[in-house]
Amino acid sequence: MTFRFWLRRPAATLGAALLLLQVIAIVFAGMLAPYSPTMADPLHSLEPPSWQHPLGTDVSGMDVLSRIIFATRINLLVSITAVAAAFLIGVPVGLLIGFYRTIASTLVMRLFDFIQSFPVFVLGMALVSVLGQEIWNVALVLAILFVPVFARLVRAEVLSLRERPFISAARCSGAGDISVMFRHILPNAMTPALVQLSISIGMAILLTAGLSFIGAGVRMPTPEWGLMVSSGAQQLILGVWWVSLFPGIAIVLAVLCFALLGDQLRIFLDPTKRAPGKAR
Amino acid sequence: MRDRLLAAATVSLCLGATLRVGAPALAQSPLNTLVVAGPRTPESLDQEYPPTEATHEARRNIYERLLAYGMKPGPGGISVEDFGKIEGRLAESYDLAPDDTSITFHLRHGVKSSLGNPLTADDVMWTFQRGWNLKATFHWYMTQVLKITDPDQAFHKIDDYTVRVSLPQPSPLLARLWVNNDLGILDATEMKKHVTSDDPWGSRWLATHSASFAPYGITQFSPGQTVIYQANPNYYRGTPHLARIVFREMPNSSNRTAALEAGSVDVAEWLQPRELNLLRNMPGVRIWKVFGNYIARVEMNNASKPFTDVRVRQALNDLVPRDEILKSVFFNTARITKSPISEIYPGYTPAYFNYSDDVAKAKALLAAAGYPNGFKTTLGYPTGDEVEEEVAVILKTAFARAGVDVELDKLPASTLVERYTKGTMPMYFFRDMAIVPDAAYVANLWLNSASLIDYSHFHDPEVDSLINQALTSTDETKRIAEMTRVQQIVMQQAPWVFLFNPGYQLATRSTVHGYSWYTPNGNTWYDFSKSATP
Question: Domain ABC transmembrane type-1: where (chain A) (predicted)?
Answer without folding.
Answer: 72-262
